[in-house]
Amino acid sequence: MKIYISADMEGVAGITAVEQTDPGGPHEYAHSCRLMTAEVRAACEGAFAGGADEVLVNDSHWNMRNILHEELPPSVRLIRGSLKPLSMNQGLDPTFGGAAFVGYHAPAGTADAILDHTYTGETLYEVRINGQVCSEARINAAVAGAFGVPVIFLSGDQNACADARSFAPWMETVTVKHAIGRYAANSLSPEQARSAIREGMQRAVAALRQRKPSIYAFDTPVRLELVFTSTAKADAASLLPDARRLDARTVSYEHTDFLNVFRAFRALMLLGASVTG
């Protein structure tokens, strides 16, 4: 059985500040890469212990060059770098038995959530699909679902885990820290977090061998609504063919194929991000 892991950084134990997650930041970033890598390694070890034969990891944070490949189990393959057409979901295909999200965070606008945002806090204020406010986890679970792959695991702070259970109650979740506002948390030690992730992944993969859980998907047609952080960004995004300007900062896109919607989502974000102010 093949297991796919998408790994972010904001939901890693001990991470509470932007400076820790920014590749252009101070010395803390290098330490954060080691913390992130160790949690990903724990997830890989848990997957193998649960019965996985193969694990693919997709580095999904910022410039997507954070994980130290040499510190992962030797057989684990790593997708590293950007731009990638499927971004945080690059590498997913129907051959995977399950997908896991490590180090994930809550959606933009969530109280008591470390560094809450949805894909890009500088460009997007809110993401809605079919009227539902969406996290990266929900969007990415639907990408996995489009390939027929169930999402079985997520680790992060308490509200990242609560968000995951709200749309995929079958998912195994591991809370590695309790957020106190946006920039503070009561965290497990790195060793305890890794142990919890290892055990959680082992349970999730072992359960997958017994029964395939539900596939997450949005009803069709799928209606995407992006609320940008400025009118100028919405100006640029609305240039995408078939996009519709709903108000000063909101642009929508609709299609019957979710993967088409996801590609439009990426394009709208990039267009919005091309404008400053």
Task: Please provide a brief summary of the model.
With 277 residues, the protein is of the alpha/beta class.
What does this structure look like?
By secondary structure, the protein is α/β, with parallel strands linked by helices. It folds into two domains: 2-117 and 136-210, 3-Layer(aba) Sandwich (Rossmann fold); 222-273, Dipeptide transport protein (Gyrase A, domain 2, 2-Layer Sandwich). 33% of the residues lie in helices and 23% in strands. The protein has seven helices and twelve strands. It has helices spanning 18-21, 28-50, 136-146, 158-167, 190-210, 231-237, 258-273, and strands at 2-7, 54-59, 77-79, 98-104, 124-129, 132-133, 151-157, 172-179, 185-187, 222-228, 244-245, 250-255. The strands form two sheets. The chain has a seven-stranded mixed β-sheet with strand order 3-2-1-4-7-8-9, with helices on both faces. The N and C termini lie far apart (47 Å). The model has no long low-confidence stretch (mean pLDDT 97).
